[in-house]
Each structure stands twice: as structure tokens, then as C-alpha cells.
Amino acid sequence: MPKLDKRLTDTLALKLPLPTTGHEYYWCKDTAGFGLRVSATGDRAYIFERRVDGKTIRRTLGKAAGAKAISASAARDLKIKISSELQNGIDRAGVRREVRKTEKLEGITLATALAEYTKGKRRGKDGLGLKDRTKHDYMEMIAPGGLRKDGKPYANGALFDLADKSIHKITAEDIRKAYTAAEAKSQRQATYAMQIIRAVLNWHGVAVAGSPLSKQTAGKDRIILAGTAGEPKPIPPEKLNAWWTAATSQAGHAGADGCRLILLTGCRPGEIFKTEFESGLLMRDVDLIGGRMVLPDTKNRKDHTVVLSKQALDIVRLHCQGKKPDAQVFDVKDPRKALDAINEAAGTSGVTPHKLRHTFASVAEELVSGYALKRMLNHTEASDVTGSNYVGKSENQLRVAWQTVADFITDQENNKPD
Predict the structure, then answer these.
(1) What angle do CA 390, 376, 320 make, to 5 degrees?
(2) Is the confidence at residue 204, as pLDDT, over 60?
(3) Which of 43, 50, 160, 405 has its CA 20 to 30 A from that of 216?
(4) Hey, CA dihedral for 69, 74, 79, 85, is it positive or negative?
(5) Quick one: what percent of the chain has pLDDT higher than 90?
(6) d(CA 210, CA 217)
């Protein structure tokens, strides 16, 4: 920061050299704290700085060149005025800056805040972001309703009415109304919506006065969110043999065989079939010699090794023939068509790919240990000290477990109705 050897004037202000990069500051010889900021792009502005309460404060007084330029004399007068105000605790520039900051913050709508959250949220335990499907599900909460491809209408997202409202102006009553409206349609969706809005507001540091989602709010005014509870709907035991027989009659069809693999392994549907958000099972995920599949970055953000039973390995091997590493093992656009045909033949209407996972879990629960089943389903064990820290399961033990389940499912004698 060079100090001039003469008084800073209008003429001198236009002659001082430009820096190669960034900014250069030139300080007047006669007026303490008064100077000129010159940028590499040619901008020139009068500035001043002074110490207030132990802090150095710098302010721009006005341009020294170009449109709306002021004179050095006028800049000196401003310097004296602003310096006096700062000395008396008045900081007009600081106030304007805080006003702009507040206006900007208040302009953040729930829609914008939710988009920023889905993009920037990181898990505390590993720093990983949200999965694409989770991002989609969150953003659906503020999406408008419309018509599906089949022409059936669907409603607005549970938080749609708050999408365009500033997160700083959302009230406790707004939250209650959103919850009540969502609860009338689905308790599960209402709970999910409240979990999302609470997470987004917390992430942005917004505290809603009297929020019904806050633990500090009186119990009578609080929304008590129901715990997450699944609704397993496995294939009825007396129809399991019929389903397996019908599915096996379509052996060689990618959709039918992929569904059979889900039933034999307990995999999630998106780990076998490609979806909008999941890659499905790829050739590079399969080890035919070792008889296993390694599913990368699963729902819990961990790789999952599935040890294949003999029956599962036969199905996978059939669909791996002649394919490249990036190819889909079960290359089918919509497995539900094959599944619908299986269900019709077996009399198991309503069975979906995910319900095949339910069926696997229901069968395995009676055949293998609880800790083995957790690992087979790739469920996290963070809160299970015994399972995560004391109970180990080798690949051979898990191979036996998967084989036991597969043998039960495919053994028609076991599954004949009484």
C-alpha cells in the first residue's frame, strides 16, 4: 500500500498506474486515512479507513473516474462526515449491508431452501450427500399435482402450499395446517413431510416461534410424529409354491428371472432392475467364479456383498452370457409385465418386486439368525451394539444362510399347502 509523497488530487487520481492484478491502494500524504483504490480493470475510487473500537473500518466514498465520479474535495468532505458518524457509533453502510442481508434471507422460499438442502446436505458420519432417489422424494413434497402417464390424476405435494413462502415467515400455524391436510390423506406422508420441513429449517438455522415440531413447545401444542413402521406384505405361505412354479415356467425371461433373484436373495428391486435412480445389477457387479454379487453404494451408502445360492447363481449365470462389463444383467424396461403374468397364474394379485423382498425376509426369519438376516438384507446396525461390535458373520456362514432360504423356497414339498 504505497503512500503518496504529495496531496491526492483529481489530476493525480487519474494518473496513478494500474496494478497488474487485483487492487492497489494509494494513501494521501496530507489527509490521514484518505486514499485511492485502483483496480487492474481500470476502476478508480476514493476510499478512507479509520480505527473504531479496535477495528479497522474501510469505506468507499465514490468513483474517481467515469460516470458519477466525484471530486477529491467532495470525497474529503464525505470522509470527514462518515468518520465522525463512525466515531459516534453510526455505521450507515453497515446498516445497509445488514438490511440487504436480511432481505436476501427473507427472500429464500421453502422451494429454494429445499433445493439447497438436497444439494448441500451431508451425512455427519461419512460426509456423503443424499441419494438421487431421496432428493427426488424430497422435491416431490413441493411439486404441483397433475396427470400420470396413464391419465390418472395425482395431488400436490404435502408442502406445496408453502413452497413459495419465505422460510423466515413460515409460522407454527402454517406447519400445523400442512400436517393436518397431509394426515387426512396419509399418516405416513404427513410424518415424512414434517420430518423434511424440520430438517430444512434446522439446516438453514431458522427457528419458528412455537413450532409444533420443537421439543421446547408444550406437549399439548406439539405434533407427535409417528415412528416409521413398515407394512410387510409377503406372499402368503400357502401360495409361495404356486408363485415360484409360475415364475419358473418363465425361466429365461429377464423380468421373471430378476424377480426370482429378488425372492432368493432379498435384494432391493433397484439393485436388480434399472430404474430412474438406480443402475440395477451390472455385469461388473457379478463374480460368477466366486458365486457372489457386490452391489455398490446401496441405500445405506455401503457396498453390499450378496453370496449366491446355487439356484440364484444359475439364474444370474444364464443372463450374463456374452455381455460386456457395463451391461445390465437383467435388461428389461418394465419387469412388472412379467410379474403381473406370474401373479395372475399363481393367484397372488398385488405382489410387487419389493414384496418379494418382504417374502424373503419373512421366510428367512424362521430359518436363520436375526444377525444373519440383518446382513443379508443389508440393514444398518448403528444402534445395535451387539450386532455391530460383537457378532461376526463370515462369508461361508452367510452362504449357508442364503442357501438354506433358497432351498426352502424352491422345495415344493416344503411349500405345499396343508
Answers:
(1) 140
(2) yes
(3) 160
(4) negative
(5) 69
(6) 6
- Any residues with CB less than 8 A from the CB of 352 and at least 6 apart, and which? 269, 336, 339
The pTM assigned to this predicted structure is: 0.68
Residue 90 above 80 pLDDT? no
Element spanning 52, H or E: strand 44-52
Retrieve residue 196's grid coordinates.
Answer: 423434511
pLDDT tens-digit profile of 22-72? 999 999 999 989 999 999 999 999 999 888 878 888 888 999 988 889 999
Closest C-alpha among 37, 17, 35, 15 to residue 27: 35
Sign of CA dihedral 340, 343, 347, 351: negative
Which one-letter amino acid corresponds to residue 53? D
Tell me how far apart the alpha carbons of residues 128 and 354 are, in angstroms, rounded to a whole number. 26
Question: How far is residue 170's CA from residue 208's CA, in Å, rounded to a whole number?
Answer: 7
DSSP string, 364-379: HTTTS-HHHHHHHHT-
**What's the confidence (pLDDT) of residue 385?**
46
Mean pLDDT, the chain, rounded, equals 89
β-bridge mates for residue 52, sequence order: 55
Q: Is the dihedral of CA 292, 296, 299, 302 positive or negative?
A: positive
Closest CA to 403 of 370, 374, 376, 371: 376
**How confident is the model at residue 412, as a pLDDT?**
64
**Cβ proximity of 23 and 39 under 8 Å:** yes
